[in-house]
C-alpha cells in the first residue's frame, strides 16, 4: 500500500502552520497572555507546531463574540443552517485525505482509520444534522375545544464544548453539528493533547460560518476549560472526559444553573455466548474480529470493549483463536495505510497504560500476549507505542474495573446467561457493550438486561449517525449522535393560547 | 511508619511544593472513566466539592507544604480499589482535565500495588480507614 509523507516533509498532503492562535469572532487572534505551548506528534514525539495558551481573558472574549453572533444565527431558517452544515460536509469531503493525515499526525491513530472512519463519519454527521433540523417538528396540543398549546424549539444561545483527544475532529463534530443545527453559537476548547488538527479543518470551513458563530479557544483545562465551564454567559456545557472533571463541570454549571451533557467513559463488556462457536464460518470470523476491536484506535475509545466475557464451554478454543487474531494486528507508522494500530496519544497516556499492565500482573492476571512498550525504531522511537495486550483474570481486578484507555483487554469466563449479565453489570459504568450470539432471543434479552446506553449486537465499534450514543450509571448524561441531541441544545417555548371569547370566571 | 493507603514519590512531592507555593492548600480527587480517567486530579483545596459519595483515602504530608493534602475518591470506585495501595507519581506529559499541574508539562500518575494482608487488617480496624465526607 502506501505511506503518507509526514506533515512538514516534502510531498505531504497537508501542512500545519508553525503556530495557531485562537479563532474568535471569525478571525485568528493571539492569546491575551501572549504565550503558546508546544504540540508534539505522538508518532515521533517531536514538536510540530505551537498553539495559543488560552486564559480566562481569551474565553471571555470568545463568549462575547459568540453572544454577538448568537441572536442573528438563532433567527436563521433551518434551511439556511442546514445549508451551512451541508457545505461544511462537502468541504471536508473535498479535503478528506489532507484532514485524515493531519488527524493521524495529531493523535497517533492509523491513517486507515481516519480515512475510513473518523473523517467520513464527521462528514456524515454534519449531513445528518442538516437533515434532522429541517425535519424537526414543533408540537401542537389541543387541550380543549378553545385552548391550544404550541411548542417551539428555540436555541439556548451560547454553548461551551470541551472536546477530548481520542477523536479530536469527530468528537468536535459530534458536539458542533447538533449545536449549530439548533441555532446556537459555540465556544469550543479542544484537548491540549490534540489542539491543532481542528484548525486544519477550521481553515477549510471558516468562510462558510458567520463570524462569531464558532469560536475556538485553545489551552489547558485549568486555564481555559475551567473559565469556559464557569462563564456566566454560557447557557450549556458539553464535555467528554472522565468522572472527576465531569463532576467538577456539573458543580460549575450549578453555579450558573445551566444544563450539562457529559460522556465520561466506561468499561464495556463484550460477551461471547457459546453458540458463536457452533461453526467456523464467516460469523465466527466476525466475532473474532469483534474481540480484537479492543485495539481499535489504540484502545483510546470510551466504549473500548476492554472486558471480554467468554462462555466456559468455548472459553479455551475461542480465546486461543482470538489471541492468534490479536497477534496478527500490524503495528507501525500510523501514516502507513497497512498499519492497524498506531501510537498512544501522549506520553502520560503511555505511562498510565504501563502502570495498569503493572498492577494487572501484581493482581495475578496472566498476560496471554503483549504487555510491553514497543520501540519501532528510527524516528518512531520517540513515539508512544504499546503492544496489543490480552490479560486473563477476574472481574474484581482493577484492570477489569477501570478504563485503561489503551490496547488492553481483560478476559474472563462465565457459566450461563445469568452469570454473564451479572459480570457485565458489575461495573460503575454503562456506556457500551457487545453481545455475540447466533440466537436472536439470547442476544435480545442480553441487550435489554445490560445496563448500558449502547449494546452492539453481533457487531462492535460502529458509530453511525441516527443511533443514540450515551451512558447509563457513571458514564454520563445525554445522548449524542442522534436527533435527540438537538433537545440538549434547545429550549422549549410553550405558547398557551385561548381562542375562547369568554372570561375564565374566577374574578 | 503507620500503614497508609496513599503515598507520594519524591518527584511528586517536589511538584506539590511548587504548586502549593503558587496556589495555596491543595487536594486530590482520583478520577475514573475514560480519557484522563484513573488520573489523580490536583486542585486548590475546596475547589472540588466532596460529599457523601466520596471517601478520603488519607492525607499527604509533604515537607515544605504547610497543610496536609487530602486524597479523595468516590466511594463506589473505592469499593473496586480498596485492596490496592496507591502512590502518586509524576511523569512528563500533557494531562487534561482541570488538574493544576498540566501547564507545567507534567502529569500526576497513580502507581499501585496490592496491600498486604497485614496492612489490610491494620487499615480495617483503624482510624486511617477512609472517612466519609462530613465525618473527617
From TrEMBL, chain A:
Family affiliation: Belongs to the aldehyde dehydrogenase family.
Residues covered by the Aldehyde dehydrogenase domain: 32-495
Sample GO molecular function, one term: oxidoreductase activity
Superkingdom of origin organism: Bacteria
Gene3D superfamilies: Aldehyde Dehydrogenase, Chain A, domain 1, Aldehyde Dehydrogenase, Chain A, domain 2
Catalytic site positions: 263
UniProt keyword list: Oxidoreductase
EC number: 1.2.1.-
One Pfam family cited in the UniProt record for this chain: Aldedh
CDD domains in the record: ALDH_ACDHII_AcoD-like
Protein name: Aldehyde dehydrogenase family protein
Organism: Microtetraspora fusca
UniProtKB/TrEMBL annotation, chain B:
Pfam families: DUF779
Family matches, as InterPro entries: DUF779
Protein name: DUF779 domain-containing protein
Organism: Microtetraspora fusca
Lineage: Bacteria, Bacillati, Actinomycetota, Actinomycetes, Streptosporangiales
Amino acid at each position: 500500500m502506501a505511506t503518507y509523507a509526514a506533515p512538514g516533509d516534502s510531498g505531504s498532503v497537508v501542512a500545519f502552520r508553525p503556530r495557531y492562535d485562537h479563532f474568535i469572532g471569525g478571525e485568528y487572534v493571539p492569546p491575551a497572555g501572549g504565550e503558546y505551548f508546544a504540540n508534539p506528534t505522538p508518532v515521533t514525539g517531536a514538536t510540530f507546531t505551537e498553539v495559543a495558551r488560552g486564559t480566562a481573558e481569551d474565553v471571555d472574549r470568545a463568549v462575547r463574540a459568540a453572544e454577538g453572533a448568537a441572536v442573528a444565527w438563532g433567527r436563521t431558517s433551518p434551511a439556511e443552517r442546514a445549508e451551512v452544515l451541508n457545505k461544511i460536509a462537502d468541504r471536508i469531503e473535498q479535503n478528506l485525505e489532507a484532514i485524515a493525515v493531519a488527524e493521524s499526525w495529531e493523535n497517533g491513530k492509523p491513517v486507515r482509520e481516519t480515512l475510513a472512519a473518523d473523517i467520513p463519519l464527521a462528514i456524515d454527521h454534519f449531513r445528518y444534522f442538516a437533515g434532522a433540523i429541517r425535519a424537526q417538528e414543533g408540537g401542537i396540543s389541543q387541550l380543549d375545544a378553545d385552548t391550544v398549546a404550541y411548542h417551539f424549539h428555540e436555541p439556548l444561545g451560547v454553548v461551551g464544548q470541551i472536546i477530548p483527544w481520542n477523536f479530536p475532529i469527530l468528537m468536535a463534530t459530534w458536539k458542533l453539528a447538533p449545536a449549530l443545527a439548533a441555532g446556537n453559537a459555540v465556544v469550543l476548547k479542544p484537548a491540549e493533547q490534540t489542539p491543532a488538527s481542528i484548525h486544519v479543518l477550521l481553515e477549510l470551513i471558516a468562510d462558510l460560518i458567520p463570524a462569531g458563530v464558532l469560536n475556538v479557544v485553545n489551552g489547558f483545562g485549568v486555564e481555559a476549560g475551567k473559565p469556559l465551564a464557569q462563564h456566566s454567559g454560557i447557557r450549556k456545557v458539553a464535555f467528554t472526559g472522565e468522572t472527576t472533571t465531569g463532576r467538577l463541570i456539573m458543580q460549575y454549571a450549578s453555579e450558573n444553573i445551566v444544563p450539562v451533557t457529559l460522556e465520561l467513559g466506561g468499561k464495556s463488556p463484550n460477551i461471547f455466548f457459546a453458540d458463536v462457536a457452533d461453526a467456523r464460518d464467516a460469523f465466527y470470523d466476525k466475532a473474532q474480529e469483534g474481540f480484537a476491536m479492543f485495539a481499535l484506535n489504540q484502545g483510546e475509545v470510551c466504549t473500548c470493549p476492554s472486558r471480554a466475557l467468554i462462555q466456559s464451554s468455548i472459553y479455551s478454543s475461542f480465546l486461543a483463536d482470538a489471541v492468534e487474531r490479536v497477534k496478527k494486528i500490524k503495528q507501525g507508522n500510523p501514516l502507513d495505510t497497512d498499519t492497524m494500530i498506531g501510537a498512544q496519544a501522549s506520553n502520560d497516556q503511555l505511562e498510565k497504560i504501563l502502570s495498569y499492565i503493572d498492577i494487572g500482573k501484581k493482581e495475578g492476571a496472566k498476560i496471554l500476549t503483549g504487555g510491553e512498550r514497543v520501540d519501532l525504531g528510527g524516528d518512531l522511537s520517540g513515539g508512544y507505542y504499546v503492544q496489543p495486550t490480552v490479560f486473563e483474570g477476574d472481574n474484581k481486578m482493577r484492570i477489569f474495573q477501570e478504563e485503561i484507555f489503551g490496547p488492553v483487554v481483560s478476559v474472563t469466563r462465565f457459566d450461563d446467561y445469568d452469570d454473564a449479565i451479572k459480570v457485565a453489570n458489575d461495573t460503575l459504568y454503562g456506556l457500551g457493550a457487545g453481545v455475540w450470539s447466533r440466537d436472536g432471543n439470547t442476544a435480545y434479552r442480553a441487550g435489554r438486561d445490560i445496563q448500558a446506553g449502547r449494546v452492539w449486537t453481533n457487531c462492535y465499534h460502529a458509530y453511525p449517525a441516527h443511533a443514540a450514543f450515551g451512558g447509563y450509571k457513571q458514564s454520563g448524561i445525554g445522548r449524542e449522535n442522534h436527533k435527540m441531541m438537538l433537545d440538549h441544545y434547545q429550549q422549549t417555548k410553550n405558547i398557551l393560547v385561548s381562542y375562547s371569547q369568554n372570561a375564565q370566571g374566577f374574578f | 511508619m503507620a500503614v497508609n493507603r496513599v503515598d507520594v514519590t519524591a518527584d511528586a512531592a517536589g511538584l506539590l511544593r511548587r504548586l502549593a507555593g503558587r496556589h495555596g492548600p491543595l487536594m486530590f480527587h482520583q478520577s475514573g472513566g475514560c480519557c484522563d480517567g484513573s488520573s489523580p486530579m490536583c486542585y486548590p483545596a475546596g475547589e472540588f466539592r466532596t460529599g457523601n459519595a466520596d471517601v478520603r483515602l488519607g492525607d499527604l504530608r509533604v515537607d515544605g507544604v504547610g497543610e496536609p493534602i487530602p486524597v479523595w475518591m468516590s466511594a463506589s470506585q473505592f469499593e473496586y480499589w480498596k485492596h490496592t495501595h496507591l502512590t502518586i507519581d509524576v511523569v512528563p506529559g500533557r494531562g487534561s482535565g482541570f488538574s493544576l499541574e498540566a501547564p507545567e508539562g507534567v502529569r500526576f500518575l497513580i502507581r499501585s500495588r496490592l496491600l498486604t494482608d497485614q496492612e489490610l487488617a491494620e487499615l480495617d480496624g483503624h482510624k486511617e480507614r477512609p472517612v466519609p465526607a462530613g465525618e473527617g
